[in-house]
Amino acid sequence: MASNLLPSGLQDLFTLAEDMADGLHGHEVAVGVKQNTEAAFRADLTAAITAQTNHVAAQTAKVALSTAVTVADSNGKAFISTARNVLATYLGNGYSQAWDATGFPDQSTAVPGTQAKRQALLQALQSYFTATPAQENPPLNITAARAGQLFTALSDARSAANDGNTDAGQKKNTRDAAEKTLRNRMSGLVGELGQLLDANDPLWLAFGLNQPGATNLPDVADSLILTVGGTGTVLADWSDASRATRYRVFKQVVGVCYHGFRRHRDR
């Protein structure tokens, strides 16, 4: 017996749903479908496709937002490293209490190992250079103003990335809910058709579905058309067979053994 299990992949699910909606468009009245009408079916399909499109867009935006954070953090690290060398001429190379006022954390003059600490240090360096302008180095762009710019850029980028993660998560939830609704609608139509159609009625095929009473084996492909191609080439085409996902094609040359090759259904 052939089954009508729904595809697990979303794109395959949308393709089958479109076939089912087309079947409803052409045969809903004749078959007597009442519960899962084309209007209701297409509303659920459109909602699911829209939700998926929005989710993909949010995921793409997340990548750009993450890149912005990386760039802002990299600029901040470069500033901190150069600022450390500038301050060492005033405070000494090794850590001492004199460094406390600069904001370098963990009793170290190294560039902090976490992004959060680097962001906090940029803000601290803005305050430090504002209070001790004599230790700024404008030619190297080690100034309170520059520290403030880099702090704001990193803070804003991190905030935007957090908002992007939230937005992507919310859109995923919306997409998942819409997918569930669509799957329920598709399963409902399969069930309703099961009450209205004979298990071997060819109308199942008009909805993109298998005939429940048919064998699981695909039908034989027919309507073979051979076309002369380039030199020594013959192009073969045929009608897609119901339930077939791929084909094995054989050619026979007089006096030569059979030769075969595989071809997927998407031709």
Please write out the topology:
Elements: H1 10-31, H2 38-91, H3 115-131, H4 144-196, H5 203-206, E1 225-228, E2 234-237, E3 246-251, E4 259-264
Antiparallel strand pairs: 1-2, 3-4
Helix pairs in contact: 1-2, 1-4, 2-3, 2-4, 3-4
Describe the structure.
The chain has 267 residues and is mainly alpha-helical. Helices cover 56% and strands 7% of the residues. It has five helices and four strands, in the order αααααββββ. Strands 1-2 form a two-stranded antiparallel ribbon. A two-stranded antiparallel ribbon has the order 3-4. A hairpin with a 7-residue loop joins β3 and β4. The longest helix is centred in the first third of the chain and has 54 residues. It starts with 9 loop residues before the first helix and ends with a strand. 24% of the residues are buried.
List keywords for this structure.
267 residues, mainly alpha, two-stranded antiparallel sheet, 7% strand, elongated
Q: How much of the sequence is in beta strands?
A: 5-15%
- What is the radius of gyration computed over CA atoms, rounded to a whole number of angstroms? 33 Å
Q: How do the strands of the widest beta sheet line up side by side?
A: 1-2
SS elements, strand count: 4
Which structural class do you get from the secondary structure elements? mainly alpha
Order of helices and strands: HHHHHEEEE
Number of helices: 5
Tell me, what's the shape?
elongated
**N-C termini distance:** 27 Å
Mean pLDDT: 91
State the share of residues found in helices, binned by percent. Answer: 55-70%
